[in-house]
Amino acid sequence: MSSSRILVLNSGSSSVKYQLLDMADSSRLAMGLVERIGEETSRLKHTPLTGDGAERERTGPIADHEAALKAVAEELAADGLGLDSPELAAIGHRVVHGGLKFTEPTVIDDAVLAEIERLVPVAPLHNPANITGIRTARALRPDLPQVAVFDTAFHTTMPESAARYAIDVATADEHRVRRYGFHGTSHAYVSRATAKLLGKAPEDVNVIVLHLGNGASASAVRGGKCVDTSMGLTPLEGLVMGTRSGDLDPAVIFHLARVGGLSIDEIDTLLNKKSGLIGLCGDNDMREIRRRIDEGDEQARLAFDIYIHRLKKYIGGYYAVLGRVDAIAFTAGVGENAAPVREAAVAGLEELGLAVDGDLNGVRSDEPRLISPEYARVKVAVVPTDEELEIATQTYALAALAGKNS
Ligand SMILES: Nc1ncnc2c1ncn2[C@@H]1O[C@H](COP(=O)(O)OP(=O)(O)O)[C@@H](O)[C@H]1O
Ligand SMILES: CC(=O)OP(=O)(O)O
Ligand SMILES: [Mg+2]
User: Fold this and answer.
1) Rounded to two decimals, what is the model's pTM?
2) 223 is annotated as contributing to ligand binding
3) Percent of the chain with pLDDT strictly greater than 90
C-alpha cells in the first residue's frame, strides 16, 4: 500500500463529521462537519488544512446522509483531494454499536454490514446513519477497503458483573440485553494518553475517564482495560447529557405510559432528545448554561447542579470499583473546555486524594495537561480526545494488512 491517506467518517443521527488524514505523518489535510441533515437549515463547514485555502460554508437543505456525503465529496474534490484520488488508501467509519461480535476494527463486507444492520434496534439514533455512510462511501469507491471502528469494542473487556443487568437471565440473553458501553474509541485513546502524561505504561495505570460531550459517558479503566462504563444497552444510560436523561428509575417509563398516556415512541424521544440539560433548562450548550448562571438564572444553576451531582456519583462509584485510582481524565467538548465543570466535579473530594488547582484549571490549551496541585495523590488531567485520529490509525493498520493479504 503506497498511498497513505485515510478518510474518516463519523456519521451521527443528524450530522457527519469528517477528516482526511495522511498517515505518513498523521497530518490532517482537511476536516469538516455537516449539521442539521434533513432540515431546511442544513450547514456544511469545510476546512482545508493544506495551502492557504480558507474555510468554506454551504447552507440550505441537505436531505439525508447520502446527500451529505456527496456534498462532502464535492468539497474535497474542490481542494484536489477528491474521493477518486489514487492517494486514498481506505475509508474509516465510526460505527456506534458493534454488539458482542465486533471486538476489533473490521474490514466491512456484506456480512459485516448485515450484522451492523441487525443492531439497529439497540442504536436507533446512530447505526442507521453509520450504515448510510458506509453504503454511500462504498458506492463512491467500491475498490477501497472500508473499515468499521466500533464505539463498543473497547468495552468488551468488562466483566459480566458490570456488563449484566440484574434481570431474568434467559430473557436478557434471548434479546441480547446487556451493557455494551459507547465512546470506546475515545475512552481507549484518552486512557492511553493519560498514562503517557503520567510517564507510565497503560498497564500500570488505573484511570477514570470522563468523556463529556453532547453525549457523555464515564469509564473505569484498569491497566489499559475497561472494567466498567456508564452507558449501557444504548447510549441513554449513565450521566446527564446534552439532550439525554441518563440514569432513571425504569418505572418512570411505565408511569409515563400508563398514567401520562405517552406512547413508547414519545417516551423514547422525550428521554433521548428532550431531556438532560435541554430538558432541565432549555439549553444543551454548557457555554450558554454558564452564561445564564453568571446572570443569576436559577433554572440553569439547577441543571448544572444535577449534571455535577451525577458526575460525582460516577467518580465515587468508579473509585470504589477500581480500588486504586492514579488519575481522572476530563475530555470532549465540555470536559476539555468547561473549567467550572471540572472544578465542581472534584470539589470536596480531598479525602479521596483529589483536588484541582484553580490556576492550572483556568489555563486554555489543546495539549494534554495536569490540573491537580503537586500534593494531590490522584492526578486530575485534561486530555483532548481525538477519535478521528484513532479511527484513522486503526483503519490504516488494518488496510495495510488487508493489502498484504490480498
Ligand atoms: N468553550 C466551551 N465551554 C464550555 N462548553 C463547551 C465549550 N466548547 C464546547 N462546549 C460543549 O461541548 C459540547 C460539544 O462537545 P463535543 O465533544 O463536540 O460533542 P459531540 O461530539 O457529542 O457532538 C457542546 O454542546 C458544549 O456544551
Ligand atoms: C454514542 C454516543 O453517545 O455518541 P455521541 O456522543 O456522538 O452522540
Ligand atoms: Mg463526540
Assistant:
1) 0.94
2) no
3) 87
Q: DSSP string covering 149-169, please?
A: EETTGGGGG--HHHH--SS-H
d(CA 262, CA 264): 7
What average pLDDT does range 47-54 have in this prediction? Answer: 86
Ligand 2 binding residues, C-beta < 6 A: 12, 96, 126, 151, 182-183, 213-215, 235
Extended strands (E) in 276-361: 327-331
**E-assigned strand segments in 96-156:** 106-107, 146-150
Reported as half-sphere exposure (CB side, CA atoms, 13 A), residue 308 has a value of: 20
The interface pTM score, or ipTM, of the predicted complex is 0.97
| Residues with Cβ within 8 Å of residue 120, at least 6 apart in sequence | 127, 128, 131
Catalytic machinery residues = 151
Domains of the chain from N-terminus onward = 5-150 (3.30.420.40), 201-382 (3.30.420.40)
- The band of 241, judged by pLDDT with boundaries at 50, 70 and 90, is very high
For 231-285, where are the alpha helices, taking DSSP H only?
Answer: 251-258, 264-273, 276-281
